[in-house]
Design goal:
The termini are close together. It contains six helices and eight strands; from the N terminus they run E-H-E-E-E-H-E-H-E-H-E-E-H-H. With 215 residues, the chain is of the alpha/beta class. The chain has helices at 16-20, 60-65, 87-112, 125-128, 189-194, 198-208; strands at 3-7, 24-29, 40-42, 45-49, 67-72, 116-121, 134-136, 154-159.
């Protein structure tokens, strides 16, 4: 059985379409501290507790079975341009840590050899590394999920044959809202803001599932 791997992923929303189709999905994040490795986080989704300041050593059996796709969502707290007014106060240490985590994502995605996306909001990575390959808003894929009718410009750095899905909008919906920007402060705010929109997750699966339903 082939696998999909998602790094810096607590919610698992990006891998849900793959898990539903029968792939083994592994989501890796330091927040999974209260779960045992390999425990279920939903049908077909397994959580891995790991601090990605160092790369996760993917078990050999997963590599041998084949990896179909890789996602990575490195933390953007110290990189997002929306927080630029606080950059100076955060200091060089915070910036260095964020860049190192992004670097770990790039290393793992390239090493695993499968199509991949590394996702971040509009950020300074474009200056420190390179411009993103693609950008999108959730409302551009409401044809797959009407609940995603909101704005949030998201950047994607991609590789290893990734196919960007075509937009599929529900033309009957009104103008998209800005719920992400109005999200209330709280411990779950970061996870809510970073969760992959269901419509886009579905679109990525359909565009990149080369097995076409056969595992």
């Amino acid at each position: 059985m082939k696998s999909v791997i998602s790094l810096f992923d607590y919610t698992g929303s990006a891998v849900m379409p793959w898990a539903t189709a029968g792939y083994a999905a592994y989501i890796v994040d330091i927040q999974h501290t209260n779960k045992k490795e390999g425990s279920s986080h939903g049908p077909g989704i397994h959580t891995i507790h790991h601090d990605l300041n160092t790369p996760w050593l993917v078990p050999s059996e997963i590599i041998k079975a084949g990896i179909a796709f890789v996602f990575a969502f490195p933390p953007c707290t110290h990189l997002s341009v929306s927080g630029a007014r606080w950059f100076k106060g955060k200091g060089l240490g915070a910036l260095a840590e964020s860049i190192q985590l992004f670097h770990t994502a790039v290393q793992m995605c390239e090493w695993l050899g499968a199509p991949y996306i590394i996702e971040n909001p509009v950020s300074t990575i474009s200056t420190y590394w390179r411009k993103p390959d693609y950008t999108f808003h959730p409302h551009q894929f409401t044809g797959y999920c009407r609940d995603d009718n909101y704005t949030k410009k998201t950047c994607l750095w991609t590789g290893n044959g990734f196919v960007m899905p075509e937009q599929f909008k529900d033309g009957e919906l009104s103008e998209p809202d800005d719920r992400i920007h109005k999200a209330a402060p709280g411990p779950d705010r970061a996870d809510f803001r970073s969760a992959t929109p269901s419509g886009f997750a579905r679109a990525v699966y359909l565009a990149n599932n080369k097995l076409k339903g056969s595992i």
